[in-house]
Design goal:
The structure is a homodimer. By secondary structure, the first copy, chain A, is α+β, with helices and mostly antiparallel strands. The first copy, chain A, contains 10 helices and 14 strands. In chain A, strands 8-10-7-11-9-12-13 form a 7-stranded mixed β-sheet, with helices on both faces. A 4-stranded mixed β-sheet of chain A has the order 3-6-4-5. β2 of chain A pairs antiparallel with β3 of chain B, so a sheet runs across the interface.
Amino acid sequence: MGEFGLIDHLTQGIKPMHASTQKGIGDDAAVLSYPDKKVLMTTDLLLEGVHFDLVYTPLKHLGYKAAVVNFSDIYAMNGQPKQITVSLGISKRFSVEDMEQLYAGIRLACEDYEVDIVGGDTTSSLTGLTISITCIGEADSDKIVYRNGAQETDLICVSGNLGAAYMGLQLLEREKKVLAGTDHDVQPDFAGKEYILERQLKPEARKDIIEKLAQAGIKPTAMMDISDGLSSELMHICKQSGKGCRVYEEHLPIDYQTAAMAEEFNMNLTTCALNGGEDYELLFTVPLSFHEKVQEISDVRLIGHITKPTLGCALVTRDGQEFELKAQGWNPLKQEKN
Amino acid sequence: MGEFGLIDHLTQGIKPMHASTQKGIGDDAAVLSYPDKKVLMTTDLLLEGVHFDLVYTPLKHLGYKAAVVNFSDIYAMNGQPKQITVSLGISKRFSVEDMEQLYAGIRLACEDYEVDIVGGDTTSSLTGLTISITCIGEADSDKIVYRNGAQETDLICVSGNLGAAYMGLQLLEREKKVLAGTDHDVQPDFAGKEYILERQLKPEARKDIIEKLAQAGIKPTAMMDISDGLSSELMHICKQSGKGCRVYEEHLPIDYQTAAMAEEFNMNLTTCALNGGEDYELLFTVPLSFHEKVQEISDVRLIGHITKPTLGCALVTRDGQEFELKAQGWNPLKQEKN
């Protein structure tokens, strides 16, 4: 198969699921219909060697993740992802089979989250793999949650647990160094570490949390997904809302595999939870009156509260000391505007 | 200025122009509103060394072009571009001033074509510059023009002229070779070649043609923009419409600078016009009954007609011979689906 047929090959059999996808792949532009909803739009650019390392990242997982991180941004607006375009820059190093794997991951994510692939392009690249995905989603106008709505006394909530994807990355980086130059048949022993690896290699977007909040009749006052680390995201919410916050170390949700790995690496666990990136959990604030309701939602934890701005943003440690939060972000070179 | 502030710096002062832009830069996703229109979506990925050469491409021009090529895809659907997201991958080689230049070009294009920048990201790259732009546009449902609507006896029309951008590229490539290793103070003499250089370095999208067609009450039966060359695009329209075509060599619109350059390079002018890419002119078909109306539109040329499919796609030369059209496309490695 010549390269000319590659995108046809990769996209064959793709059929739109949504009524909002009126025309998908195959013309100068896709045609979408949103008469009753607001349209949400987010984009993400992933570069080999900067955002992913193919030494330990299976291409199918990479495709899945590249799609899911965009869905996560749509959920973080309290919306539903509906369409994506996929642009790939591919060097000669990659075979058609490689691209099939990558696309299989993208398509799997789209099936799991019910999203239509409506366009994109493939192009040769001089070096490495480039993946650019743009996602369109929908939301009712009165349901959209921005970053700037947090109010004093609001409760700060987070889904799932923190720092796991970061520790998964540390583990993979260590094994890469250990294995470099050694017998390639030696397989690293990841037994008991499956969870943190999966958090790094195949993260999920928290569609379930958005659904549970809706079922409980809770509309957050502010929301973000955690891609750069809790500290960084919380500071965004506080800055844009013109508020401060207190987060309690003892309430930070951390999985035992994350904790075990941090101990093995002799790393500060709280720092990992605060600054580890790529968790793709949801960080949101709700009015104090929702205290009981939000506590009933499984896999959501209350970690602190919003304050007046003069108090700044601080972590309260187990012994009652306060430390100012800093945005050490997992990847300060990658700056998303949405 | 640290890199952390780069995207804030580049996007400062950007204010949405359109009512459809309800929330632009600054959250997990932009919020758009399209209650009465269809939404058009297109995307383009540009990689240094593959799609552009910074030896002779000023960054401001590159930014302008990167935006305009996306607008062109929206016009090719008979729509209006309204919003873009801009993602940049930037290696250490580039300064903040470089990125200011690039962004200045993108912003100028957005001002000229009245398009809002609503998001994106900047990230470091290991090598070279990566630009990924996604454009959202709007169109009335009954005005959208696809590629698949061409009918037998329809007239084939093209705006502007063909092959100019390609000849501009040839000129720049030649000067690059001539100047390599020589005194950098020697400036190439581009006198009399300004037009073809501008067509290559700072192309425009044919918003004016879309407006003129609307004013004349003409809705094309099929339309595309010419990014890969007339032959390639015409074959797309014929294939998707299930038709054939005849294009007349004598009617191909060619600027005299293009012709002069082709002679200087000893290249076949018709081949340049048929296969030269990046013209971003509009190729469209209209019913035969619009013959007089479409001829009255300035800067539109009738170049042939649609036939039944069994006749295939062919060029009719000045001496009456027929040659089958071939999609030699300017850049066969770049395959756009939209």
